[in-house]
Amino acid sequence: RRMPSDLIGGQIRYRSFDYCQLLSLWKRQEQPDMSRCLPIWFACSFVIGSYTVHHMQVATAWSLASAPGLVGGPRHRYHPSQSTHHAQHRHRYSTRVSSTGDGDEDDPIPLFVDYTQSRIPPNEPLLRSIDRVKNSLLEASNDTSAGGAINNDALLRRIVQKGISFQQANREKHRDDEYEMQRVPGCIATVLVRATLSRNIVTISGKSDALLSGGLIAIVADVLSGVDVTAHEILQLEANSLTSALGLKPILNTGRNDGVASMIRVIQDQIRSLLGDSSGNTIQPSSRDAIRNETSDKPTVAMLLSGGVDSSVALHLLLQQGYNVTAYYLRIWLEDELAHLGECPWEDDLHVCQEVCEHAGNVPLETVSLGKEYRDRVVQYTIEEAQQGRTPNPDIMCNSRVKFGCFLEYIDQSGMKFDHVASGHYARLEDEPRESSPGTTRAKRLFRAPDPVKDQSYFLCALTQKQLSKVLFPIGQYKKSEVRQLASEFNLPNRNRPDSQGLCFLGKVKFDEFLSSYLGSRPGDVVDAMNGEVIGKHNGLWYHTVGQRKGIGKVMFPLATAHGPWYVVAKDQSKDVVYVSNRYDEDDFAKARSEFEVEDVRWISNQHPAQASSDGKWEVVRFDMKIRHGPKIVQGSLQLKGDGSSGNVKLDLKDGGLAPGQYVVFYSQTSDEVLGAGVISEKHWASFLKEYKQMVGSEL
What is the pLDDT averaged over residues 422-451? Predict the structure, then answer.
């Protein structure tokens, strides 16, 4: 194609698309003819070199959009021989570039895809409804650019607001519909919809636990419930076409485009049912209905699938062992959804889960949203602990309160009676010897995995006997290298996928950023623990933990940093003081680093070890211990006190950092068995502050 003579500075009559949008659009369609596209691209780059970035984007948009197959693909190109009726409506979903150099007008550039390309049925009511909704979304307002085009973020927020308004307007009207709504399969969020029919006019109700998904429900409902749009016209609609016709396809990720298509298919199936038409592929109701073969004699397992190699191998091992497996992907908590509207951080994980299940023989896969439960049971705990200056452990809480807590509650309440729940954790379970509990249900015993680096028994220390009685850890007896080998033998689609890092609910957000968004800043003094001198200013106790070295220099005065390295040795929450020292490795801190009090002590068997008491007195008992997740095991002793829920710990060697709120896990010294756990008490700080108050001779 030739370039319009007035491309630079000419009238370009279409809404602006930025570079990233076009690349995203390009990736989703068939590859363009590079021999025709690249020369124009390079020509534009040369000619426009001295012009603004905006003009460069326009030229790039023109060249990319001109490439055959970029939008719609060669199978759906418009041809002059198409019907006159199609041509009458073509202008609605295509754009033109004006070229005045020779009086001609170039062919339309379908940035907004033509309904003929989208296979929208040629009926006026549906087209008018699409136009009305699209115009309301794209109309100019305060959140548009100087050229009158709405930007991506503003458009996404407009969709979210549309969903919020839809829910508010229909909360009372469709309250009874909630019990008859149907789950839309394939959505990472929980999306429920219902179609009702009156005189061949369809009304859509629905809800979602995700903001953007709620907005897309509102858009679909607005289009399909338009004036004079009939049920039969909706049945003619190609499910994959609507986001293209509305101009939304380039700004929605693949998962959300597919989600809208799946939503329309569910609605179409509901309409067929209401019309008494049994044709079409009826989508069965969602996870509330039985999704496993009730006639099967195999033991049933709900497998927690994350998309990682470990859980994928665990799923295949269960199938080899003859279990009837249903996979579950848990969507626990999205990163701040309004800040990530254009992308879903977990979409890749869910896509991998789908591939793994298909590879395993089409194992059923369900997505369960436990976002509210996670916020209430884990995120709130994390915030409250950090606010008090303590060191939280969200991963331990996630396992005990969510994965093996409210998820077990969910499947029980849904009426799906599974024999077991399995995960890809590195830990081992064994039944208590029969002679230890004759005539009763045998208790479960938890053990470390043989791989000291990958062992996750530390994170499972808060599980109860009731939870452990339902749990399976299929890869618990393997080392990581062996699991990788099994992944290769199974030829898993994700066999080369790297291990995930960081806290499960944060995704790409750093922990400090998470704390900042919830707790902000609360400045205080950084004090030398040896002499009481103020040597810096911190932004909040929650940004620092005992034993910390990295990053502490950023909040210290320049003259002090030269005398480092400095370590955080304690915090005083009542005064917002962080205590540091450059003598952390010396004998001054030997006691503070080896003796502490634990609280909330619990035992896996629900009973303290027999040797812990004698003649009504608490005895000193030796244990192997883990102060934090990792391969390091330390030795020491515990002496319980009072009612046995607290005690004093003495380590044989100094630890790197004993932080209140941190979990201590107790292991048998004669085996790898996890016996119990406790939490380091704030009394550890109190004793430290008391000693150093006496040492420096002033009130710290």
Answer: 85
